[in-house]
Amino acid sequence: MTSPAEQEVLVSARGLEVHFPVRSGGALRRTTGALRAVDGVDLDVYRGETLGLVGESGCGKSTLGNALLRLVPPTGGTVTFDGLDVTAMGRKQLRELRRRAGMVFQDPFASLDPRRTVAQTVSEPLEVHGLHPGRQARAARVRELLELVGLDAGVAARYPHEFSGGQRQRVGIARALAGEPDFLVCDEAIASLDVSVQAQVLNLLRRLQRQLGLTLLFISHDLSAVRHVSDRIAVMYLGRVVEVGPAAAVAAEPQMPYARALLSAVPVPHPELERSRQRIVLRGDVPSPARVPSGCRFRTRCPDVFEPCPDVDPVLQPVGSAPGHLAACHLHGVVGAPVQRAEPGAPVGAGDPAS
Amino acid sequence: MTQLPAPGATPAAPPPAEPLPTTTPARPRWRETLGLLARNPTAAVSATVLVLIVLVAVFDETLAPYGPNEQDPSLQLQPPSRDHPFGTDEFGRDVFSRVILGAGTSLRVGFLSVAFALVVGTLIGLVAGYYGRWVDDTLMRLMDVLFAFPAVLLAIAIVAIRGAGPANAILAIGIVYVPIFARVTRASVLGVREEVYVRASRSVGASDWRLITRHVLPNAAPPIIVQTSVSLAFAVLAEAALSFLGLGPRRPNPSWGLMLADGRGFIEQAWWYAVFPGLAIVVTVLCFNLLGDGLRDVLDPRQRTLMAGGGR
Amino acid sequence: MTAPLLEVEDLRVDLRTPRGTAHVVNGLSYTVGPGETVAVVGESGSGKSVSVLALLGLLPERTATVTGRALLQGEDLLTMAPERLRRVRGPGVGMVFQDPMTSLNPVLTVGRQLTEGLRAHGPVSKAAARARAVELLGEVGLPDPGRAVDRYPHELSGGMRQRVVIAMALANSPALLVADEATTALDVTVQAQIIDLVERLQAEQGTGVIWITHDLGVVAGIADRVLVMYGGRCVEDGTVDDVLERPVHPYTRGLLGALPDLATADDADLATIPGTPPAPTDLPAGCVFWPRCPVRGDARCETEQPPLAVVGAGGGELPHRAATWCAEGEAS
């Protein structure tokens, strides 16, 4: 693999924010606060790579995936797709984005319209974008797509309820690929499948990625699966990407305490290893995204919390030995914006990588 | 045809990993629905009876042995006999013929008013449910206001403003049922709108129009269909009530409600005068209700899987 | 070896379905000793959950037929009078299911639900029960148990709820704890907390645990013994090391091969098991796995059901057994 620096960026987020208003009850529904689902994400996805996005439920990884495609409107920051500003796109450009970026959803039982045949579902993008015009051309393309994902073309006339979960997920993938996208977001695409079926879908995604030269954002809470398919891994916590880097480096030498705890908690099917392993058990629960701690957002649970953590919001900085391995943690030098407080204190000197 | 310009889409297709479904033939959804409905005896009988009633209404003039206003002064208030199976009324008219000829009026009012409510109510509910926010608030508050009036009172008011007659009865009953359809539709749309497959369609670039017509409405339809059936029952009753109050179709044209109203005055001398039109109303209403129940079961996907023995 | 806590013998469960009789569990035998953790592993439809629901009398009586024996401390759970079984369930067996909300009443406070369980099985004063509830919540690691006791389930996070359910299951110090996919819906860090908790309590109280899961990683961490289920049968059992490190049955091997492995990550494709599990209404003759089996090395595979026989080295107290015809040639 070439080093990330030489690669072309396909999708890029800068300071991306998705805040949902928190409303009070009652008739007036006043906005009382904000749920910071995605809160200042900087992330690049390189053309042709698979980027794994991991994190626990509620960390905003799914919202981030949706915001990159403007399926959820960002409330701040920018997203660019192949150089174009996604947040500023007009109707026509947005339609083209929908063609060039596909999405595979978690629950294959919910993501297919029960009243439409496989052919109708798979050909929807073709109709929407006027691809392969003409009935026969569309039908031929649908057959081709079904075969591409390992389904028999003869199933086109069937309804989703006749299929198993794995087969449905293949249909979902075929739909996402119909517009010949460059970019595919897989949002927990294997989470509701049985282990042996997960393997089939993972293999399929990897094969498609190589064969079609896709760029893949693989969102999952399953670190083993993410490690298996990804070139790079990004770890999210409470709306922020806190560590990102080459998959092997992040998996083997996580640099940020949260990433370390997360990886240490992943069970592996080796009894010997499990017995000898030192698991980092975190204290307490993830804070609510409506009340994000000041400074480093992980500090309330961090085993290594120290002086600057509440006062300086850390930014991603190079860590470890692998190129392109970044983490947002003061343990690697206090870098970041000092927290604005009511009384002007003396925040720790920012912008000074001590190490 | 074979040279489709799909980049890299010349797959070394892996062997299909799972046996593909071959047992269940692909059948259109509505035929499956009809098949399931046929297996529900109550619903099947109700549907059959309703078809018969509609046929009677269509071929009323052929089927009725007498004209609607054919009077025979010598045969006033005669009990049921071979010549007059439902007896005669105070003008010596044949009640059997008038029940047959009244079916058209009663059903027409029922169908047209429900059709009106269905179209307007569904549209309002769809727009409110799909677009939400202030559109939803405005439309549904409007419906609440309409809903707050007692139904018959509202119908009476409308007829009072616009005058009696079948057209106004249809409009009145239709308006009364608009909020029900709006609410049912909105509730159903709210559920469907959040379905993943709707999001999935949006993710491939489908327009609002496409989402609404191809995904939201078809999937939101079952409760609306059930409501239609139930409302038809109520509409037939409402027509009867309006006619009974003298606000619906006017004499001497026969309608079931009108006959019921007129027969009431003779209930002690001639029970058949009111009972047979009443019976016609009861059977029709009952059948619409039972059909509605049957549809509710058949259109429920969980029930469907169970009954069809297919699915996951 | 001490007397087993639970002894299950030839457990069979048939369920009547619209599509015919489903043979969901077909002759399952195992034991759980005090302080021992037995993991029951399988994919959806393998019968792993039904097999324990049957033990606890939690299957609908109208459609389920349960046969066999299940001795809990010498008493047969399957022939027990319903009233007696209800009493056994609290103090004898604690249960934790995947979705904590199914075990919690949304309109009662956590404390109320805990004390109800305590007071149903013995005369305890209200104040004493409440004190014990606070203590239990503390034991399962709920922060600030004195306040948590007055909370409603919806005010707690998923991990906290599951801890409350575990506290409820442990309220009467049961001899046996049944955890059915108890951590599946939780995040890995919370899962680690829960597993930690169960292991600690087990060490303190000598509770026997049946841990039902599809996650072989969790199994490796928590189980002493593993039972792999497929098509309602146990296809392989043995110590956790034997089954996970030296699997014999082609299904177990397939399952392990299909697992992306964080520890030994490589770039190769994952192994897959072709096809889908059999429908319990229509189980294949012979070895239940043969239609999907990549080996199929024996003529008997398709006709004769292989017995669960000792494989590999030695019997001993915890023999490694597998139900397959290919064991002789394949076992390492």
List keywords for this structure.
heterotrimer; A: alpha/beta; Rossmann fold; eight-stranded mixed beta sheet; 10 helices; 29% helix; 23% strand; globular; disordered C terminus; C: 332 residues; 2 domains; four-stranded antiparallel beta sheet; 12 helices; 12 strands
- Helical content class of chain B: 55-70%
Helix-residue proportion of chain C? 25-40%
Q: Quote the average pLDDT of chain C.
A: 83
User: What are the low-pLDDT stretches of chain C, counting only 5+ consecutive residues below 50?
Assistant: none
Query: Largest beta sheet of chain B, briefly?
Result: none
What is the β-strand count of chain B? Answer: 0
Overview of the molecule:
- The complex is a heterotrimer of chains A (355), B (312) and C (332).
- By secondary structure, chain A is of the alpha/beta class.
- Chain A has a domain of 212 residues: P-loop containing nucleotide triphosphate hydrolases (Rossmann fold).
- In chain A, helix 3 runs parallel beside helix 5, helix 4 crosses helix 5 and helix 5 runs parallel beside helix 6.
- Chain A starts with 8 loop residues before the first strand and ends in a 17-residue tail after the last strand.
- By secondary structure, chain B is mainly α.
- Chain B contains 12 helices and no strands.
- In chain B, helix 2 crosses helix 4, helix 6 crosses helix 7 and helix 8 crosses helix 9.
- With 332 residues, chain C is α/β, with parallel strands linked by helices.
- In chain C, the strands form 2 sheets. In chain C, strands 6-7-8-3-9-10-12-11 form an 8-stranded mixed β-sheet, with helices on both faces.
- In chain C, a hairpin with a 2-residue loop joins strand 9 and strand 10.
- The interface between A and B is large, with 60 and 43 residues.
- Chain C: Belongs to the ABC transporter superfamily.
- Chain C: It is found in: Cell membrane.
Question: Summarize this, please?
Answer:
Chain A: It comes from Geodermatophilus aquaeductus. Chain A is α/β, with parallel strands linked by helices and 355 residues long.
Itemize the secondary structure elements and their pairings.
The complex is a heterotrimer of chains A (355), B (312) and C (332).
Chain A (H helix, E strand, L loop, with lengths): L8 E15 L7 E16 L3 E5 L6 H8 L7 E6 L2 E2 L5 H10 E4 L13 H11 L6 H14 L16 H13 L5 E5 L7 H18 L2 E6 L2 H7 L2 E6 L2 E7 H6 L4 H9 L5 H6 L35 E3 L2 E2 L7 E2 L8 E3 L17
Parallel strand pairs in A: 3-8, 3-9, 6-7, 7-8
Antiparallel strand pairs in A: 1-2, 1-4, 4-5, 9-10, 10-13, 11-14, 12-13
Chain B lengths: L28 H10 L2 H18 L1 H4 L31 H37 L1 H16 L2 H12 L3 H28 L2 H8 L4 H37 L11 H9 L6 H29 L1 H8 L4
Helix pairs in contact in B: 2-4, 2-11, 4-5, 4-7, 4-9, 4-11, 5-7, 6-7, 7-9, 8-9, 9-10, 9-11, 10-11
Chain C lengths: L5 E12 L2 E13 L4 E5 L6 H8 L8 E9 L2 E2 L5 H8 L3 E4 L3 H4 L6 H11 L5 H14 L5 H4 L9 H13 L5 E5 L7 H18 L2 E6 L2 H7 L2 E6 L2 E7 H6 L4 H8 L51 E2 L10 E2 L4 H4 L2
